[in-house]
Specification:
The chain is of the alpha+beta class and about 160 residues long. Helices cover about 35% and strands about 35% of the residues. It contains two helices and nine strands, in the order αβββββββββα. It is elongated. The N and C termini lie far apart (about 55 Å).
Length: about 160
C-alpha cells in the first residue's frame, strides 16, 4: 500500500465515523431540547402541581425493581411525585407518599461520577432511587418540604 492510499483510507474512515455520530447525536440533541416542555405539558395535563420545574438531569438507577438503565433525563417535582422522563427509555415516576428517606452520596450502586452528589430517595419497599439534578440544594429543600422527611447524613 502506498502512503497516499493509507491517507485516503484514514480520511474516509474519519468521515464515515463522523457521519454516523452526527446521524445519531443530532436527533437526540433535538429531542433533549424538547423534553422539558413535553414533561411539563404531561404533568399539567394530568392535573399535577409543579414544585420544581422540568430541568435536565440524570436518572442513576434503582437498587430494586423498576428501571435499571441509567441516562440523561429531565426531572420535575410535583406535590405528588418525582417525574423523570429519560431521553431513551420509559418515564420513571416516584410517588412522594412512598418516600421514607432522602439522602445524598457521591456513590450509588458502586458508581462514582466526578465528585457529583447523587440525590437518593429511599422507598417504603427498601428500594433506593437516585438522580443527578441541576440545582441540588433547591431539590433537597423542595423534597424535604414536600415529604416532611429530613436529609440523612451523607456517607463519607
Amino acid at each position: 500500500m502506498t502512503p497516499v492510499l493509507i491517507v485516503v483510507m484514514v480520511v474516509g474512515i474519519v468521515v464515515v465515523v463522523a457521519g454516523v455520530n452526527l446521524a445519531i447525536w443530532l436527533p437526540l440533541r433535538g429531542r433533549l431540547a424538547k423534553l422539558p416542555q413535553q414533561l411539563g405539558d404531561e404533568l399539567v395535563a394530568a392535573g399535577e402541581t409543579i414544585v420544581q420545574a422540568p430541568a435536565r438531569g440524570a436518572y442513576r438507577g434503582s437498587t430494586g425493581g423498576g428501571a435499571q438503565v441509567i441516562g440523561t433525563a429531565v426531572l420535575a417535582l410535583t406535590t405528588r411525585l418525582i417525574a423523570c422522563k429519560k431521553l431513551m427509555g420509559s418515564r420513571v415516576d416516584v410517588p412522594l407518599a412512598q418516600i421514607v428517606g432522602i439522602r445524598e452520596d457521591h456513590r450509588f450502586r458502586n458508581r462514582y461520577v466526578g465528585n457529583r452528589l447523587h440525590l437518593i430517595v429511599q422507598l417504603e419497599s427498601g428500594v433506593e432511587v437516585a438522580f443527578f439534578v441541576a440545582d441540588h440544594d433547591a431539590w433537597k429543600a423542595a423534597l424535604r418540604e414536600q415529604t416532611g422527611k429530613p436529609l440523612e447524613a451523607r456517607a463519607r
